[in-house]
């Protein structure tokens, strides 16, 4: 199963080979799938030039035409679902079924933002006779975007959709570890008739790319999804050059299970969601705070679901959970488990890698993890759950809010009083009750505290890609 071919840059509407390349590894068997291009500084400068020209054309294209091109490209992605999903599974490891859903989700981001392109309304401010004040939204310019490896197609889709729907051009550096998802997006846009230079793909040395693109005066905005540490670094570079930054960063999502919730239904739902994408999701439910009166049945139901999971190669039809994306994650997970167990946590299941080729880490749950264990504060970003008892909903909310993160938070309760406490009390950009779904194309998504700046999707999603211009018109 080695059908990824070499991946090139896409600059000014042309696919471009580079002298330097680096290997793309299948995380399920460590085989080399192909080579990905490594951009030189002059490739990056040419990408900026191409995006400048792309912006000139695209910003003057009518919103209706922009929306039509985006809808055509999204339709092509839906048609090519199987091919795109296959590439995602081979490079990232997730099951083919999850990869198929990711492709549909990516298409939905494009479809939603295409609709929003038609609704970027300005306003007219009430004024005296003879003068008119108008507020209009103009596309901000060339966007530099950076996306990670956990959703190789839908993460780039979100950024490209926002930029293109608003009339911006974009240079995107998707992950070198999983580069083919964004290549499929570019091909769909090429076939849908997007003018050259509006969408440009680069790959290479991440720090070299961000340090070259962000300071360039033609680049007017930065968008990033990834770790809080890298997000802060890129925000600092952007601030030095007075550029806005849209940041979707880490989380360490709490789940509060109240005493009136059904512990079995909640336990099964939580375990099912936890191990999606091998836990490598910024909204992945991770810190489970379960009322002590239902702690044991919750844990039993959770572990029952874990035992039913099939871990294997994503291409195999019965696989529920694939490998993690790379060996960095294996090392990070093992450290967190060992630290917690050494400090007195119960190892409820897993806690080790599998002795086989590929980056397979067993679905893991830790119980009664003591304060001071690193895993309570550090996002594991893998198949690792923490299940701790709480004495009340207030206790759960307090524990949930102790971290500097605030991306997604979840609660399970049948009581409207508890739900109200959760919705008001949880410090997060997205609070979900009795469901572990955190975001959809039509709902705004993003974090508070160190989980990020700004929102993607929903009616708010295009706001970052436009700037407000006020026009005062004195009428003779
Ligand atoms: P990382 O933070 O170094 O990389 C994450 C992504 O950022 C990669 O795709 C990488 O290419 C890019 N990146 C890194 N340094 C960059 C730079 N200087 N300029 C531009 N782009 C840069 O590390 P990692 O090992 O891949 O992931 C570690 C942590 O990142 C995880 O534990 C998790 O917390 C976080 N992460 C979050 C998300 C998310 O969806 N929010 C996705 C992936 C990783």
Describe this structure in words.
The chain is of the alpha/beta class and 476 residues long. It folds into two domains: 5-249 and 451-473, 3-Layer(aba) Sandwich (Aldehyde Dehydrogenase, Chain A, domain 1), CATH 3.40.605.10; 253-440, 3-Layer(aba) Sandwich (Aldehyde Dehydrogenase, Chain A, domain 2), CATH 3.40.309. The chain has helices at residues 41-58, 63-79, 81-92, 96-117, 154-166, 180-192, 206-213, 228-240, 263-274, 295-307, 327-342, 393-400, 416-425; strands at 9-11, 14-16, 21-25, 32-37, 123-125, 131-139, 142-146, 169-173, 199-202, 219-225, 245-248, 253-257, 285-291, 346-349, 364-367, 384-390, 408-412, 430-433, 452-453, 466-474. Helix 13 (416-425) links the parallel strand 17 (408-412) and strand 18. Helix 1 packs across helix 7 (206-213), helix 2 packs antiparallel against helix 4 (96-117) and helix 9 crosses helix 10 (295-307). The radius of gyration is 23 Å and the shape is globular. The N and C termini lie far apart (72 Å). The model has no long low-confidence stretch (mean pLDDT 97). Bound molecules: nicotinamide-adenine-dinucleotide.
Fill in the keyword field for this structure.
binds nicotinamide-adenine-dinucleotide; Aldehyde Dehydrogenase, Chain A, domain 2; Aldehyde Dehydrogenase, Chain A, domain 1; 21% strand; 37% helix; six-stranded mixed β-sheet; seven-stranded mixed β-sheet; 476 residues; alpha/beta
């Amino acid at each position: 199963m080695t059908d990824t071919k070499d991946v090139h840059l896409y600059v000014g509407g042309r696919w471009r080979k580079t002298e330097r390349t680096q290997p793309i590894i299948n995380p399920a068997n460590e085989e080399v799938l192909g080579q990905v291009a490594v951009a030189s500084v002059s490739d990056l400068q040419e990408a900026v030039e191409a995006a400048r020209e792309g912006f000139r054309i695209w910003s003057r294209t009518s919103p209706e035409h922009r929306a039509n091109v985006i809808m055509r490209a999204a339709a092509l992605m839906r048609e090519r679902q199987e091919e795109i999903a296959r590439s995602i599974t081979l490079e990232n490891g997730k099951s083919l079924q999850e990869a198929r859903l990711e492709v549909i989700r990516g298409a939905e981001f494009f479809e939603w933002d295409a609709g929003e392109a038609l609704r970027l309304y300005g306003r007219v401010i009430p004024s005296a006779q003879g003068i008119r004040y108008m507020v209009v939204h103009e596309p901000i310019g060339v966007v530099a975007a950076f996306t990670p490896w956990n959703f190789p197609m839908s993460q780039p889709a979100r950024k490209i959709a926002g930029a293109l729907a608003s009339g911006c051009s974009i240079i995107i550096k998707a992950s070198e570890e999983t580069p083919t998802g964004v290549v499929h997006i570019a091909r769909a846009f090429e076939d849908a008739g997007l003018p050259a230079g509006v969408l440009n793909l680069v790959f290479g040395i991440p720090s070299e790319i961000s340090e070259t693109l962000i300071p360039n005066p033609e680049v007017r905005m930065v968008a990033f999804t990834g770790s809080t540490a890298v997000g802060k670094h890129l925000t600092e570079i952007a601030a030095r050059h007075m550029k806005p930054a849209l940041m979707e960063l880490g989380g360490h999502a709490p789940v509060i299970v109240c005493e009136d919730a059904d512990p079995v239904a909640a336990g099964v739902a939580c375990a099912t969601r936890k191990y999606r994408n091998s836990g490598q999701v910024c909204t992945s439910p991770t810190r489970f705070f379960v009322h002590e009166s239902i702690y044991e049945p919750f844990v039993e139901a959770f572990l029952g679901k874990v035992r039913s999971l099939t871990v294997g190669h994503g291409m195999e039809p019965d696989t529920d959970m694939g490998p993690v994306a790379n060996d960095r994650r294996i090392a990070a997970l093992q450290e967190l488990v060992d630290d917690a167990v050494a400090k007195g946590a119960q190892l409820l299941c897993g806690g080790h890698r599998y002795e086989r080729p590929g980056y397979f880490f067993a679905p893991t749950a830790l119980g009664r993890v003591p304060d001071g264990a690193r895993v309570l504060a550090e996002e594991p970003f893998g198949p690792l759950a923490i299940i701790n008892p709480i004495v009340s909903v207030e206790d759960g909310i307090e524990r949930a809010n102790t971290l500097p993160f605030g991306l997604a938070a979840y609660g399970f309760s049948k009581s409207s009083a508890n739900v109200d406490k959760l919705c008001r009390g949880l410090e997060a950009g997205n609070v979900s009750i009795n469901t572990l779904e955190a975001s959809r194309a039509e709902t705004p998504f993003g974090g508070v505290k160190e989980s990020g700046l700004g929102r993607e999707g929903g009616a708010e999603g295009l706001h970052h890609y436009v700037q407000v211009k006020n026009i005062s018109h004195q009428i003779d």
